[in-house]
Write a structure and sequence with these properties.
Blueprint: E1 2-7, E2 12-19, E3 26-34, H1 41-59, E4 63-67, H2 75-93, E5 98-102, H3 104-112, H4 119-130, H5 139-152, H6 154-167, H7 171-175, H8 180-189
Parallel strand pairs: 1-4, 4-5
Antiparallel strand pairs: 1-2, 2-3
Helix pairs in contact: 1-2, 3-5, 3-6, 4-5, 6-8
């Protein structure tokens, strides 16, 4: 299965295509889609989606994994991000792709074992796990890789969530977005097992 990981942004959107293959995930391509911040939102959306659709047609992924929404102090920023997320989701659903989202703390915990890891720590672990050299790309690209890798490897995610639930500090319960049972159901749906 080919997975598309997206770290959405109204100026810079990170993307990563992973092929789950037979043994371990293989990176097909990753990078950023950059839109000029001087352009109006609708033009930035058009540019990002046009570039993304070219990549979708090239790699034909079956699954979209995207960073989940978190709270913004600025409602306008949240609304703009919602436009980007919605446009990406529609483009992917038109191609029949499945959709999963992961809160940032869950991605960090799945990749590094620590839900409060820095973006740099996540990037270093992602590059080490995938056996690729770190480039000069923005952290949005490595974040997209981390999101796709989280979806590709449900076992570390399941382990992190079960361990957090036992301690009573589940990222889902802290943010009051989903129960442990809901996460476990999602993990099983993705083909993972919980021991």
């Amino acid at each position: 299965m080919i997975i598309l990981g997206i770290d959405p942004g109204s100026i810079t959107t990170g993307y990563a295509f992973l092929d789950t293959g037979e043994n371990c995930p293989k990176v097909l391509e990753y990078g950023v889609l950059h839109a000029s911040e001087t352009k109006p939102l609708e033009d930035r959306l058009l540019h990002i989606l046009t570039e993304l659709e070219k990549l979708l047609d090239k790699y034909k992924p079956q699954a979209l994994s995207m960073e989940g929404v978190f709270f913004y102090k600025n409602p306008k920023s949240a609304l703009v991000l919602g436009h980007i997320r919605g446009a990406v989701l529609v483009a992917c659903r038109r191609r029949g792709m499945t959709y999963n989202e992961y809160p940032p703390s869950v991605v960090k915990q799945s990749i590094t074992g620590k839900g409060s890891a820095s973006k740099e720590q996540v990037a270093n672990m992602v590059f080490a796990r995938l056996g690729i050299e770190r480039g000069d790309l923005p952290l949005d690209a490595s974040d997209a890789l981390a999101i796709a890798l989280t979806h590709a490897n449900p076992a570390p995610l399941a382990s992190a969530l079960v361990g957090s639930a036992k301690k009573g500090t589940s990222p889902a319960s802290r943010k009051k977005k989903a129960t442990t049972k809901q996460w476990m159901d999602l993990i099983e749906k993705m083909g993972g097992t919980i021991q």
